[in-house]
Design a protein that fits this description.
heterodimer, A: 82% helix, 0% strand, elongated, B: mainly alpha, 73% helix
């Protein structure tokens, strides 16, 4: 099955059609998506700003990262579920949208990065040394900012 | 007193039209509004969750509040600037949007919630700073903030939809009243 055939199948799906035909469903799901983004952004920024040495330097980064992790995962889960629903309702538009492709690519990289290198960087103070810790934080913020940018501009495209 | 004439005057200024029709400035302003949302609401949520006793329980509440505050303020400033710009780009329609009006009311209530919190239980924070679960009045402030900002985001997102716009008549009487629509028959 080609990618286009898969996207057409998504577009024709019952869930996608139901959301598309409803006046309220898309805006409401999108609002949940946005609320979850705000929470996700806060959890990401807390750890990244700490890695940059800009907030709560007196607290171990591992403690902050572990404490906030349930909310990082929870908000990411809400984002993914609501995001899939939004995608199903306008799959073809997304398929032809450049910002959407940028968004999905940066999202995949951001998730893998968060679960590997960034997790290592936040596992102990200066786990990677001061330079690499800060670089990891900058890359993390840049990746999630790109995800948000791509999401917002998907709405402007098409 | 109606602010409608002022909004109509704003609407006719050249910069308002330029911003509204700009291919890049308008979307960029929207994107910046969303980016700042993560900074402002995101960090506010972390403080709220600490006030409710759901995260970072081993940290003093005052430390979470004071260390995050400069960033929250920075996020808030960007939100207000970009928010004013978004309003300025489409003044009359925004002014007569039910969702925009709901958002403004909720913002005022959120401000009052902060004021009640700071002039009340926060003054005695030294007595409960290290409590894993803060006292009831602090928890109430945290929950109120979480609920208010959720609805503020909902209301803000809904401004984009024109279901209740004044130029889509007939609308129910309460819609025209709440949106401040000026009907031709009036």
């Amino acid at each position: 099955m080609s990618m286009l055939a898969f996207v057409q199948w998504c577009e024709a799906s019952l869930v996608g059609g139901t959301i598309r035909r409803s006046l309220w469903l898309f805006p409401v799901i999108e609002s949940f998506h946005l609320v979850a983004f705000a929470v996700l952004g806060g959890t990401v920024l807390l750890v990244d700003l700490r890695l940059l040495g800009l907030v709560m330097r007196s607290q171990p980064v591992a403690l902050l990262a572990a404490g906030i992790r349930p909310f990082f995962r929870g908000s990411l889960a809400v984002m993914l579920v609501s995001g899939v629903l939004l995608f199903l309702s306008e799959s073809l538009k997304c398929y032809y949208s450049f910002p959407f492709k940028v968004k999905i690519a940066s999202l995949l990289i951001a998730i893998v990065f968060a679960g590997t290198i960034r997790r290592k960087a936040a596992s102990a103070d200066d786990a990677l040394g001061p330079f690499w810790s800060k670089l990891v934080a900058v890359i993390s913020i840049a990746l999630w900012a790109t995800v948000a940018w791509g999401g917002r501009w998907t709405g402007f495209s098409g | 007193m109606s602010l409608l004439p002022f909004c109509q005057w704003l609407d006719e200024t050249a910069w308002s039209t330029a911003l509204h029709e700009s291919l890049f400035m308008y979307p960029l302003t929207e994107s910046t509004h969303v980016w700042a949302l993560a900074l402002f609401v995101g960090l506010t949520v972390i403080l709220d969750l600490r006030l409710v006793g759901l995260t970072l329980r081993s940290l003093p509440v005052s430390e979470v509040a004071r260390r995050l505050l400069p960033w929250t303020v920075a996020g808030f400033v960007v939100m207000v600037i970009t928010g004013v710009m978004l309003f300025y780009a489409i003044p009359v329609r925004s002014y007569q949007s039910i969702f925009f009006r709901v958002k403004v009311v909720l913002l005022i209530i959120a401000g009052l919630n902060v004021w009640v919190f700071h002039s009340g239980i926060w003054r005695r924070v030294a007595t409960w700073d290290r409590a894993p679960v803060p006292p009831r009045r602090a928890r109430v402030a945290g929950v109120a903030s979480l609920v208010l900002w959720t609805f503020i985001i909902f209301a803000g997102r809904m401004i984009a939809y024109n279901w209740f716009d004044c130029d889509r008549q007939p609308q129910p009487g309460w819609v025209n009243w709440a949106a401040g629509c000026v009907l031709e028959s009036d």
